[in-house]
Structures are given as C-alpha cells and as structure tokens.
Amino acid sequence: MNRLEVIESQKINGLKTIRRKIFGDSRGFFSRIFDLQELQQIGWENRQICQINQSFTQQIGSVRGMHFQTPPFNDSKIVTCIKGKVLDIAVDIRKNSPTFLQYQAVELSENNATSFWIPEGFAHGFQTLSDDCMLLYIHSQPFSAESDCGLNPLDPKLNIAWQLPISCMSEKDKNRKSIDETNFQGI
User: Fold this and answer.
1) What pLDDT band is residue 1 in, cutting at 50, 70 and 90?
2) What tens digit of pLDDT does each residue of 65-83 get?
3) Is 121 left (phi over 0), alpha (psi -120 to 50) or beta?
4) Of 187, 61, 54, nearest to 126 (Cα)?
5) Any catalytic annotation for residue 67?
6) 113-123 pLDDT, tens per residue?
7) Fewer CB within 10 A of the end CB, N or C, for the chain?
8) 3-state secondary structure (DSSP) of residue 126
9) Which run of H or E residues covers position 71?
C-alpha cells in the first residue's frame, strides 16, 4: 500500500519533494511523515534516524540557514512544515557537482502535506512566509558541534531570491563569511 502520494525529483539531482496522502474525516486528518520501506526507494537506504528535531520561528520573514555538517557527520534530512508556511531552500555544496552552489526552493506548509528530502551534500535553510512556523526535521546523523558549518544566506554568490524582506536572522548566520572570503570549495 502506498502511503506517500507523489515523490517528485527536483531540478537539482538528489533533491526530492514528497507529497503525503491525507486521510481525513470529521475529526481532522492523519498523514504519515516517514515510511522506511517507501523512503528507501528514494535514497534513505542504509541510513538510520539519529535525530528528530523541531524548530519554531515566530516572525514572518525570518531566515534560518544555510546550515550543513562536514563529513563524517554530513547528513540526509526530511523537512516538514507542521505549522505555518515556509520557503525551504537547499544549496548544492557537492564540490564536483554540475549544480555546485545552485539552490532549489520549495514551499512547505501545514496545508500542502509536502516534505523536502535533502540528501548529504546540501546546505539547508528557510524563510518564514507566515508568523508562527513550526518545522520537523528527520536527520540521518547526530548533531556534531565540530562539524557544524554554514553559508551566509545573503552571500551574492548564492543569489537566493528570498520572497520577503528579511525581518530576523541570527547573528551567527548574518556574520558568516562569504564564499569568496573563505574560498569554500564544497564537501
């Protein structure tokens, strides 16, 4: 029985969106976010779930990102918006990729039942398109402070088209050096 409705490949190789089936009645609805058997077919094979994280962002226009971990802690993730609406972004940081430093944007919301599959080799971030956004992240590797890295979300080399004026961003993300300053070559 397919519990996931549609799995669509995105323009950057490796990225996929997953649209879940919604089973609803007068009480509300049910949807499955993670199904190991079905997700193994798109790339979750030989991976475990090491962490399930949740983030809450209050203000519309806020940006979080662009985060990644270096090997051996680089990870795959499935990102789902369970409240509100976000523009979710994945930047290709695979050094030998033909789409190196290009990004893919996907709208995730509590209403569209869509998750974003982001494999190893991508930086991740998002912008809130509504107030009070809550995201759920399923990770294949544990967090490692020593491997924690990121790109500046405002770096002109990335040229990310944020949909709204940026209202809030952490000092850490805002102060990350540019790709040119660090001579970032990918992972």
Assistant:
1) very low
2) 999 999 999 999 999 999 9
3) left
4) 61
5) yes
6) 999 999 999 99
7) N
8) strand
9) none
